[in-house]
C-alpha cells in the first residue's frame, strides 16, 4: 500500500504539466521571431551560423526595408571581424561565398615587398617571387613592417575580401542618391595587423583593382570606410590616391582599414570647361534680354494705365527677375571658385541656392496662374492676388535656405575628372550628408514644380488644339500660331529645365541642356515682347493677352 507521502508525490507529478501549461503557453505567445539584421544579438559571435545570418542582411537591407535593419550595428559587426581574426589560435583561412579571408604570421624583418592575391573568387594568398603578379593584388612595401608601432619580431596579418551585395550596408550617403554610383563589383578589401591602429605610413601600401573600362562620364575613386563620418559612417578618400593603370586602378593608401573602389558620375576636365563656357555665355545673354524685359515692363507700365492692374506681366517680370539674379549668382559663383574664406563660400552657396529656388517657385506660380486663366476660368478671385504670390515666390525659398543653412550644408563642392583631378570648384552643397538636402530641396522641389507645370501645359495645349472646333474653318492653316503659343508658355513654365532628365543618356544631351536652359531668359523676353508690345496686338498672343486682362479685371 502506498504511503500518504507517496500518494502526494504522485499527485504532484500528475498535476505539474497542468500547472506549467499556462506559463508555457504564455512564453510561446510572447516569443518574437529572431531578426539577425537588427544586429543587437550575437554582435560579437563569428561562428558559421552567425556569419551566414549577418551576410543575409546584405540583400535584405535595402531602401524599402531599412526599418528592419540596424545598419550601424551590422557595419560594426563586419568592421570588428578582422580584429576577431587576428586573435591567436583562430583558423588561418575563411572560405565562404560572401567572405574570403587569410590570417598569416609574418616576420617584420623582411628585405623585400610582399604581394598577396586578391582574386574575389579565391582565398587571399601570398604571391611568391617567381609567380606572375595577379591582376587583383595588394603590395606591402618592406618599409611597412619597420614603421609599425612596438618592437615586434612577428605580426599577424589579416586580409579580407567581403562581398557586400546590393543592399544599403557600406553604401553611405554618397551612394544612396540613385545617380548610378556604387562600389565596384560590391567588393571590399580589409587589411589589419594585430590589434593595432596603423596610420600615416611613410610609404603607402598599394591595392590594385582590375576592371573593364568604366562607362562614359563615370570615374573611379579609391576610398576607405570611415566609421566616424555621419550617423552610420561613410566613404572617405583622405590618405588615399587614385592611379589609373592599363590593368586596372591602383589605390595608394597610408593606413589600414576596409578599402573599395567607388564608381561615380563625373565629367572630364575639357568637357566641364566647355560646358562652363557655354553656360556663362548663355547666362550673360539671358541677363541682357531679361534686363530688357524688365525695362520694357517699366515703360509699358508708365505708358498704359490698364497695364498697372494686370497681374500676368507682373508674374512674368518676377520670374524674369529671379532668373536674372540666378544667372548673376551663377556667374559670380563660378568665377570665384574656391576663393575667399569658408564663410564667404557659405554665403555664395546660400545665395545661389536661394535664387535657384525662387526661379523654380515662380515657374510653379506661372503654372498656377495659367491654370486659373485657361482651365478653371470661373471663381478665380483672390484678394491681394499678386501680393500673396510674391510672399510664396520670395518667402518660401527663404525659409528653405534658412533651414538648410542652419544645418551647415553649404560649402565647397568639387567636380573631378576620371583621373581624380579637380575639374571645377564652386560654392554649393558640401559633399557627404549634405547631398541628402540637395536632393530634397533642389531635385525633389524642382520635380514637383516641373510636373505641375507640365500637367497644366498639357491641359492648355489640349484645350487650344481640340476645343476650337467652332472656329476651325476660320483658323485653317493657323496651327503654327497655336504651336508658337505653346512654345511661349513652355518658356515660362521651365520646360528647358526638364532636359536635365535626359542628361544621363549621353554627353550630347548635356550640351543641349546647358545651351537651351541658359537661354531661358531670351525665350521669356521674346514671349513678353510679342505678348505686350502694341504692334503685336493681332498676333498669336492676342488671345492670351485678353485672358490676362480678363483675369486682372476680376481681381478689381
Number of helices: 15
DSSP, total strands: 16
Q: Percentage of helical residues?
A: 40-55%
By CATH, the topology of the largest domain is Rhopdopsin 7-helix transmembrane proteins
Write structural notes for this entry.
- The chain is of the alpha+beta class and 556 residues long.
- The chain has two domains: 48-265, Chondroitinase Ac, Chain A, domain 3, CATH 2.60.220; 269-378 and 385-532, Rhodopsin 7-helix transmembrane proteins (Rhopdopsin 7-helix transmembrane proteins).
- The protein has helices at residues 4-30, 48-55, 57-60, 71-79, 81-85, 142-146, 269-303, 311-336, 342-376, 385-406, 434-466, 479-493, 507-518, 520-532, 542-555; strands spanning 93-95, 99-107, 114-117, 125-127, 137-140, 154-163, 182-183, 187-193, 205-209, 218-226, 234-236, 240-245, 248-253, 258-265, 410-416, 422-429.
- Strands 1, 2, 6, 7, 8, 10, 11 and 14 form an eight-stranded antiparallel beta sheet that branches.
- Helix 9 runs antiparallel to helix 10.
- It is elongated, with a radius of gyration of 33 Å.
- The relative contact order is 0.08.
- Residues 1-32, 536-543 and 550-554 have low confidence and may be disordered.
Briefly summarize what is shown.
The protein is an alpha+beta fold and 556 residues long. The protein is 47% helix and 17% strand. It folds into two domains: 48-265, Chondroitinase Ac, Chain A, domain 3, CATH 2.60.220.50; 269-378 and 385-532, Rhodopsin 7-helix transmembrane proteins (Rhopdopsin 7-helix transmembrane proteins), CATH 1.20.1070.
Amino acid at each position: 500500500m502506498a504511503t500518504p507521502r507517496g500518494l502526494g508525490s504522485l499527485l504532484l507529478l500528475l498535476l505539474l504539466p497542468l500547472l506549467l501549461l499556462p506559463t508555457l503557453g504564455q512564453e510561446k505567445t510572447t516569443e518574437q521571431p529572431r531578426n539577425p539584421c537588427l544586429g543587437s544579438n550575437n554582435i560579437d559571435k563569428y561562428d558559421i551560423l552567425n556569419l551566414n545570418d549577418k551576410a543575409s542582411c546584405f540583400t535584405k537591407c535595402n531602401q524599402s526595408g531599412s526599418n528592419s535593419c540596424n545598419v550601424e550595428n551590422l557595419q560594426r559587426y563586419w568592421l570588428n571581424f578582422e580584429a576577431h581574426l587576428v586573435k591567436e589560435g583562430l583558423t588561418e583561412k575563411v572560405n565562404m561565398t560572401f567572405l574570403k579571408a587569410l590570417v598569416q604570421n609574418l616576420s617584420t624583418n623582411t628585405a623585400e615587398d610582399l604581394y598577396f592575391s586578391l582574386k574575389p573568387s579565391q582565398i587571399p594568398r601570398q604571391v611568391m617571387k617567381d609567380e606572375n603578379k595577379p591582376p587583383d593584388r595588394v603590395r606591402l612595401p618592406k618599409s611597412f613592417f619597420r614603421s609599425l608601432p612596438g618592437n615586434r619580431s612577428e605580426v599577424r596579418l589579416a586580409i579580407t575580401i567581403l562581398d557586400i551585395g546590393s543592399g544599403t550596408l557600406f553604401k553611405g550617403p554618397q551612394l544612396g542618391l540613385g545617380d548610378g554610383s556604387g562600389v565596384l563589383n560590391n567588393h571590399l578589401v580589409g587589411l589589419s595587423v594585430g590589434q593595432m591602429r596603423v596610420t600615416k605610413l611613410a610609404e603607402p601600401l598599394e591595392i590594385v583593382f582590375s576592371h573593364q573600362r568604366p562607362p562614359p562620364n563615370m570615374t573611379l575613386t579609391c576610398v576607405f570606410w570611415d566609421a566616424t563620418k555621419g550617423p552610420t559612417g561613410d566613404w572617405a578618400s583622405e590618405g588615399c590616391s587614385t592611379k589609373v593603370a592599363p590593368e586596372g586602378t591602383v589605390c595608394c593608401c597610408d593606413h589600414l582599414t576596409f578599402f573599395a573602389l567607388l564608381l561615380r558620375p563625373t565629367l572630364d576636365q575639357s568637357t566641364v570647361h566647355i560646358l562652363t563656357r557655354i553656360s556663362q555665355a548663355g547666362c550673360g545673354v539671358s541677363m541682357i534680354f531679361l534686363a530688357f524685359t524688365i525695362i520694357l515692363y517699366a515703360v509699358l507700365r508708365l505708358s498704359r494705365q490698364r497695364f498697372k492692374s494686370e497681374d500676368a506681366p507682373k508674374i512674368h517680370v518676377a520670374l524674369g527677375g529671379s532668373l536674372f539674379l540666378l544667372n548673376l549668382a551663377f556667374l559670380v559663383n563660378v568665377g570665384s571658385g574656391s576663393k575667399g574664406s569658408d564663410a564667404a563660400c557659405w554665403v555664395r552657396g546660400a545665395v545661389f541656392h536661394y535664387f535657384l529656388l525662387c526661379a523654380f517657385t515662380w515657374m510653379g506660380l506661372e503654372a498656377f496662374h495659367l491654370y486659373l486663366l485657361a482651365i478653371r476660368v470661373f471663381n478665380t478671385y483672390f484678394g491681394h492676388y499678386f501680393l500673396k504670390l510674391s510672399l510664396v515666390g520670395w518667402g518660401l525659398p527663404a525659409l528653405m535656405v534658412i533651414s538648410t543653412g542652419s544645418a551647415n550644408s553649404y560649402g565647397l563642392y568639387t567636380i573631378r575628372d576620371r583621373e581624380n583631378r579637380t575639374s571645377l570648384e564652386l560654392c554649393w552643397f558640401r559633399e557627404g550628408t549634405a547631398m541628402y538636402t540637395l536632393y530634397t530641396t533642389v531635385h525633389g522641389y524642382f520635380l514637383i514644380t516641373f510636373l505641375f507645370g507640365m500637367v497644366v501645359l498639357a491641359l492648355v495645349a489640349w484645350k487650344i488644339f481640340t476645343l476650337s472646333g467652332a472656329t476651325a474653318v476660320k483658323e485653317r492653316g493657323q496651327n503654327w500660331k497655336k504651336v508658337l503659343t505653346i512654345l511661349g508658355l513652355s518658356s515660362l513654365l521651365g520646360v528647358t529645365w526638364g532636359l536635365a532628365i535626359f542628361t544621363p543618356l549621353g554627353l550630347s544631351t548635356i550640351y543641349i541642356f546647358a545651351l537651351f536652359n541658359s537661354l531661358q531668359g531670351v525665350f521669356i523676353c521674346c514671349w513678353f515682347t510679342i505678348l505686350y508690345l502694341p504692334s503685336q496686338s493681332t498676333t498669336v498672343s492676342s488671345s492670351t493677352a485678353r485672358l490676362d486682362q480678363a483675369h486682372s479685371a476680376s481681381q478689381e
